[in-house]
Amino acid sequence: MLDLNQMALFVQVVQAGSFAVAARRLGMPPTTLSRQVAQLEDSLQARLLQRTTRKLTLTDAGRTLFDQSAAQIATLQDAASALAGNDQAPKGHVRVAAPSGFFDYFAMDWVAAFLATHPAVQLEFVLSDGMADVVGEGIDVAFRGSGELPDSSLVARKLVSSYLALAASPAYLAARGSPQTIADLTAHDCICPAHTGGHGTWNLNGPSGPVQVAVHGRLGASTGQAQRKAAEAGLGICLLPINALRDSLRDGALVEVLPGVASAPAGMYVVYPSRRHVPRAVTAFVEMAVQRLTAVMGQTQD
């Protein structure tokens, strides 16, 4: 007789993409999980997974078993969850990937209130303007400014719409003058992303529609937060999401440049490793984020 628990663990490993991520989600040691899958392989007398230090690969036998058993295992798990009751409190560790300037507009008070409401949940934030490898880095949910998915197994949901805005400090504009047209930006110091050699191309919306403008500057930075601070210091004009600039604009540290003219549509997306069996803790956190972000950034999109 096959051990259905071992079958379920095997499915969890495949869906997570690694023993470490699956073990963390299941709350068990990776060595125990690996041993259970090895015992399943012994029972079947077939290797299911090719293990390397960097990734797991399904064998032909493993792919056949996963394809034929994943749906049935999911049905059994759903039935067990229904019998156990759907009022179980969210719990567990949630690893969140987000842009470096995430907490410029996502209040830490919201996080504190969420953790107070869900005492069995732990949150870990991985902040970077690079695109996190959701599966490889064990990310449970990622916030991104784009819904483009390099991995077709991922799932993206658009949360809110926003736009990018140009901004500079009053001191910079007093010294260099305010651009009157998009073309004027070519004569200004523009704060570009790092590794561009001080040159970049900005996609903007002019009076006649979308337009690209080649810009340059003497300072580049790899994060939105650093670009904003550089603009506040009078080092040039930045192009960032309006919500990342809101406090600086309100306080007068920055002034919007070409308001309503040189703006580009943007948005925020939440990305999951899989649509199925999203942990309750992840769902609870995302729903809180949707509610909070919608209130300050705009309407939730389908």
- Unreliable runs: none
Shape: elongated
Label the structural class. Answer: alpha/beta
For the largest beta-sheet, the strand count, sense and barrel status come to: 7 strands, mixed
Proportion of beta-strand residues = 15-25%
Cα-to-Cα separation, first versus last residue:
46 Å
Question: What count of helical segments does DSSP give?
Answer: 10
Cα radius of gyration in angstroms? 24 Å
Helix content: 25-40%
List how many beta strands DSSP finds: 13
**Average pLDDT number:** 84
Element order: H for helix, E for strand: HHHEEHEHHEEEHEEEEHEHEEH
Question: What are its keywords?
Answer:
302 residues; alpha/beta; seven-stranded mixed β-sheet; 10 helices; 13 strands
Question: What does this protein structure show overall?
Answer:
- The chain is of the alpha/beta class and 302 residues long.
- It has 10 helices and 13 strands.
- It has helices at 4-16, 19-26, 30-44, 60-84, 102-105, 108-117, 170-176, 224-232, 242-251, 280-297, and strands at 49-51, 56-58, 92-98, 121-127, 141-144, 155-168, 192-193, 199-206, 209-216, 220-221, 238-241, 255-257, 264-272.
- A hairpin with a 4-residue loop joins strand 1 (49-51) and strand 2 (56-58).
- Helix 1 (4-16) crosses helix 3 (30-44) and helix 1 packs across helix 4.
